[in-house]
Amino acid sequence: MLRQTLLRSGLPAAPALLLLLAACSPGDDSADNGAAAAGPTPVLTTAPTPTAAPDGTALVPGGWDVTENASGARAVFASPDGAPDLTVACDRANRAVTITRAEAAQSAQAIRLDAGGQAVRLDLAPADGGLVAEIEPSLPIFAAFSAPDTAIALTMPDGTRMQYPTHPGIRRVFEACS
């Protein structure tokens, strides 16, 4: 039937068929078709750095930077100007995990560390880079360092309390030495 219609129109069959097929096609807007086929371009975002602990109290401003290499792993909390404030580090050579508080103290200090409903006393000793304590990473309190919706609180000998956000990458530091 289509052939009879095309022959009656006086057009040769092949060009008439092409015109008919072209009229039925959706068109060739390659720019639009390519974009529609690929879908929307994803926008990568990061989670905002929290500014308040779950109880509403202020957190120390800054953020965590977690790195790992052949010698170990390190999570450094730095202030907005980039100065390190608190470091959790794994030294693979001796399987030691340490916490360092950047402070120019000349004598040892005992601080209270709270996280995830747990508390421990840390005896910090002066060392390069501040005050350092070796920790046992298998203690339940350190699992809270990577848990969401909690905070890491340090209470200094003078009663000053500093709270830091947790970060999921801190888990890698503990795993690197396990």
Can you give a write-up of this model?
The chain is an alpha+beta fold. It is 22% helix and 34% strand. It has a domain at 63-176: Sandwich (Immunoglobulin-like), CATH 2.60.40. It contains five helices and nine strands, in the order H-H-H-E-E-E-E-E-E-E-H-E-E-H. Strands 1-2-3-4-7-6-5-8-9 form a nine-stranded antiparallel beta sheet. It is globular, with a radius of gyration of 31 Å. 20% of the residues are buried.
The CATH top-level class label of the domain at 63-176: Mainly Beta
Q: Give the neighbour order of strands across the main sheet.
A: 1-2-3-4-7-6-5-8-9
Round the mean pLDDT to the nearest integer and report it: 81
Number of DSSP strand runs = 9
The portion of residues assigned to helices is 10-25%
Please report which band the strand proportion falls in: under 5%, 5-15%, 15-25%, 25-35%, 35-45% or over 45%: 25-35%
Series of H and E elements: HHHEEEEEEEHEEH
Oligomer kind: single chain
The description of the largest β-sheet is: 9 strands, antiparallel
Number of helices: 5
CATH topology of the domain at 63-176: Immunoglobulin-like
* Second-tier CATH architecture of the domain at 63-176: Sandwich
Quickly give the structural class: alpha+beta
Uncertain runs: 1-9, 15-21, 28-32
Radius of gyration, in Å, reads: 31 Å
- Calculate the terminal CA-CA distance, rounded to whole Å: 79 Å
